[in-house]
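Late entry, written up from scratch paper. The run itself happened at the end of the previous shift, but nothing got recorded in the book at the time, so transcribing now.
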Amino acid sequence: MNYKFLSTAALAVLLSGCVTFSGLDPNSNYSDVGDSAIVVLGVSPRYRVHIFEGDRVGDKWSRDTVMTKLNVFPEDGYIVAKLPARTGTANYGIGAVLPQGIGGKVFLPCKGQRTLTFDAPSGKVVYIGDIKLAEIGPQVRYEASSDFEAARAHVKARYPLLADKLVSGGGFESSELANISCVAGPSAPITIYLPTRR
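Output as recorded:
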């Protein structure tokens, strides 16, 4: 998967609107899932991740072009967040990775490249999977894996009322991005490569 560097001006557009900048608050009434979904994603190291709403047609996925839905760092290795339920052709995907957080480099997949998508089923507390990221020179590589017991241990420690509700989801899907063309700016774009997950 090839990602390109995003300008600061374009980042400001991504950060506008109704965006969640933090994970689920353990001091809130977090056990009330309702018709929403609570997703659990393992992310290491502590890179900020942008999650977008999107729509899938076959193997192609088009993400929201206006704003990201979730813009958070993992805490203790996991992102745990409440999202509106979306499954099937309407789901979520990773639209950008910020290794240094806001103000640092931003990498995103462009049209024709692949990214990771997932479902958020209504009323469920669902573990999606783990992603290990590594910035190596001009590239970021990842390995996707699954460790349900480790995820459950994290949820039990931070959100004990959710531990027995946690279920394993269908995992990540690799989808081809159908929109978001990347145009080089005044300086050459930084490209990063995320190979097919193993």
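Helices lie at 8-14, 148-158.
(Scratch paper discarded after transcription.)
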